[in-house]
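The instructor's notes for this session suggest beginning with a concrete chain rather than abstract definitions. Hand out the sequence below and ask the class to guess, before any prediction is shown, which regions might be ordered.
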Amino acid sequence: MPTSSYGALRVLLLSFFLLPLLHGCLGEGGDSQSRPDSTPDGSVSGQVLDPPIQGAQVRLVDAEGNALSALVRSDDQGRFKLQYRGDTAGARLVATGGRDAGTGLSFQGLSLSAPLTDNPDGIVSPVTTLVAHLTAQGFSLDGARERVAQRLGWIRSAYWRRPRRTATCSNGRCWWPSS
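After discussion, reveal the predicted structure:
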C-alpha cells in the first residue's frame, strides 16, 4: 500500500472512532442542565425598544452569562417570545444587533440587556441596559433603577413599563398614534 493511501486510511479510521466521542462532548444542547425531555421550564415575551429594534437576536442568560434559551429574532415592532430551561435567578435578557425601526440605523455590534426580575413586560432598552450594568456592579435592582431614574431626571415607575401606545413605523419613520 503506498504511503499516501495508508495515511488517508489511517485518518479515515481515526475519524471513524473519534467522531462519536466528539459528538458526545460537543453535541447538540450539551449544557449541564439538559434532561431527557425537551419541555421548557417557562417562556418570556417582551420587546426590544429604542424605538422598536427589529431583527435583534434575543436570548435569556443566567447570572454567569450561560444561555438558558435559544436565540430568537425580534419582529418589526421589536417583539419576541422565547422559551427557556434552567434557573432564572439573576437571569437577564440580552439583545444584539437589529435595526432601529425609527431611524433605520443598524445596531450591529451593539448589545442591550435587562434584568428578568420584576420585568413583567420583558422590556429591553438602553435604559434597562444601564440598570443591568449597575446590578452587575453590585447595586440592588431597586437601587440601580433609582439611580438611573435620578440621573435621567425621570419618575422611576414611568420608564420600566411597556409604553401605553405603540409607535407605528414605516419607511424608517415612527410616529405615535393620537389617543
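Then share the key points. The first strand starts at residue 42 and ends at 48. Helices lie at 3-26, 126-136, 141-152, 156-160.
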